[in-house]
Amino acid sequence: MILVFDEKEQPGEQGEYYSRKQNQYNDLHGFLQASTTSNYILNSATKKKILGWIPYVIGAILVLQFGALGVWQIDRGLDKRAQKQAFDSQAGFAAWSDGMAVRSFQMLKATGQLDGEHQFLLENIIINSRYGYYVLTPLTVSSDEPVLLINRGWFERSGKEVSADSLALPDGRVTLRGRAGSLPKAGYRMGDAIASPGDWPQRAVYPTLEELATALGKDVQPFVLLLDPDEEHGFFRHWVPEEMGPARHYAYALQWFAMGVVLAGLLIWNFRKRGLES
């Protein structure tokens, strides 16, 4: 026979047990609350510190951008000065042939047949606040060579139609003198360069050489000959490098550098002031 006696917990022991559990709970709750408060204070301080650095980061980026713009303007000014020197240093017209290396504004003379049946009118060319056209005429030097486009100059737009007589050309081979140049360019062009291909003379708005070659159905030389003002069979011609000379680019560069220096000074002053206050 096995006798089992019930063990009864004394009232005093039961009270101590619950008291001990309550103390453990209070300790855990206090620890969690303190940890949460500490994390909140830490996160707030970190967030405030990060937000405080944002203006300096943005300011530093702007300083670098101002400096880059200043360097770009200096490069543009050097390019303009080189163009002007090349324009002024030319003396005498060199005989041009296909495959010949050509410099910007080089004085050249070319011999060939002008194609009066396939001419281009470059629209939206403004000179002295008046709208007009540049007239581009292909010059065929040899049947197996790309044609050379001749910019014969500018004439004012007086109506929607351009008479064929105003674009008349001599028969036979001619020798033309001019400077090596390029097509006029626009910052932004809307729509197609050639609105109605197939109708001659074709009107074009800031076309590329590739687009003109497509319209002609034959290759073209990689430059345009700007017809010399003393040559016949042309219109108004005043070929000069871009009107904005190198001095203005240098002035713009000085402005960008000055803005960068002022902003950098403000950032340094504010940073030192913030350090003293803290």
Q: Which strands sit side by side, in order, in the main sheet? A: 2-4-5-8-6
What's the number of helices?
3
- Poorly predicted spans: 1-8
Structural class: alpha/beta
- Terminal-residue CA separation: 84 Å
Total strands: the figure is 8
Main β-sheet: number of strands, strand sense, barrel status? 5 strands, mixed, barrel
Question: What is the arithmetic mean of pLDDT?
Answer: 81
Q: Into which percentage range does the β-strand content fall?
A: 15-25%
Radius of gyration, in angstroms, nearest whole number: 40 Å
Q: Overview of this structure, please?
A:
The protein has 278 residues and is an alpha/beta fold. Among the domains are: 53 residues, no CATH class; 135 residues, no CATH class. The protein is 43% helix and 21% strand. The protein has a 5-stranded mixed beta barrel with strand order 2-4-5-8-6. Helix 1 runs antiparallel to helix 3. The termini are far apart. The N terminus is likely disordered.
